[in-house]
Amino acid sequence: MKRNMGSIDRGLRVLIAALLVVLYLTGKIGGTLGVVLLILAVVFLLTSLLGICPLYYPLGLKTNKKAK
Q1: What is the dihedral of CA 45, 40, 53, 65, to 10 degrees?
Q2: Which of 30, 34, 41, 64 is spaced 20 to 30 A from 18 at the CA atom?
Q3: What percent of the chain has pLDDT over 90?
Q4: Nearest Cα to 13, choosing from 37, 39, 46?
Q5: What is the DSSP string of 14-64?
Q6: What is the pLDDT of residue 67?
């Protein structure tokens, strides 16, 4: 799989993931919603570290300028 995420996209995902974790740990979000958002944070971190978003492939999206 080729990388399809650009650096801005990856950075935003890391920031959003960090924000979700902080909100959960401070008790601002909790319960089922908190767990779902923590799972989303993990997905955001993994996709940003790998530079690959599987959802982009069927949608034909590429935020990485080097991807062809």
Answers
A1: -60
A2: 64
A3: 85
A4: 46
A5: HHHHHHHHHHHHTTSS-HHHHHHHHHHHHHHHHHHHHT--TTHHHHT----
A6: 59
User: Phi and psi for 60 in degrees, rounded to 5?
Assistant: 75, 25
Tokens of 13: 């995902």
Please give the backbone phi and psi of residue 26, each rounded to the nearest 5 degrees, phi first: -85, -5
Instruction: Specify whether the CB–CB gap between 60 and 26 falls below 8 A.
Output: no
Q: Given the structure tokens 């570290």, which residue do they identify? A: 49
CA 55 to mean position of chain CA atoms:
11
Torsion, CA 4, CA 6, CA 9, CA 11, rounded to 10: 130
Q: Which two tokens stand for residue 40?
A: 């989303």
What's the token pair of residue 11?
Answer: 């950075």
